[in-house]
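Final report, Chapter 2: Outcomes

The project's central promise was a pipeline that accepts a single protein chain and returns its three-dimensional structure in a standardized token representation, suitable for archiving and comparison. That pipeline is now operational. To close this chapter, we reproduce one record exactly as it appears in the project archive, with the input sequence first and the structure output second.
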Amino acid sequence: MVLIRSGSATVLAAGTVVTARELTREQQRQIGRAVGSGEDLDFLLRDEDLLTLSLTGWAAATRDEQTLRIGDETFTRIEAWYIQESLLHTIAENLYAAVKSRGSVPLETFKQESGLPAPLALALLRQLETRGEIVVRGANIEAAEQEEALSGEEQALLKKIEERGFEGYPVKWLEKSERPTVGTLRQKGHLVFIESTSVYTARTFFEIASLILTGKAVGATFTIAEAKEHLPVSRKYMLPLLNALEERGFVRRIGDQRQVIKLPEA
């Protein structure tokens, strides 16, 4: 952009148009600080989506990466959105504090106070609920119930099952005296049964799902051989595990391949 006085050939000023959008004063200051610090803005100026992300702290995701780095800030992906990690932590901490002091927070109040677009605010709540940090009941957000401490017997059985690793613990190896404990652990969500023949701890199964789906985006397809690249188990164990992922909505079978429907939440 060049500024010339009318009727004159004298250049009064020259510069680069950063954006044609309407900016708030704070966003203007952000760009001013970045320019003043000598930060390289070329990559931002060439990408309107990254500029939006940098200025607002959130934006619809247009890339496949789970995280992005812009300057000193890290942005993490939540469903179809990117959000600045520091902003995410602040919003989550404020929500925890509000729930703790009030007992519950109306869903609409959170959506307004978060300052996020409604779809992103709801996506954030779904992530926090999946992690067991909050519970959404009707139109209210409540604190998640604290998990009961495990008994020594329960801890010992979990350890024994977990030691079997990715091949799982054969159900037929369970002793009759252990069956009540197994039932209790299953109700608490600590055990995952595969085709009624093997049992895994929930932690091991989550690790299995994460390994099988490593580097795969939602919508991508993969073969059994590709699944075994990150989880080197025999076909005998892999097929039941893939079936279990399908039952839980992670993948869908298409012929001899599986299509990724969703990814495990960290």
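Archive annotation: The first strand starts at residue 2 and ends at 4.
This record, like all others produced under the grant, will remain available to the consortium after the project formally closes.
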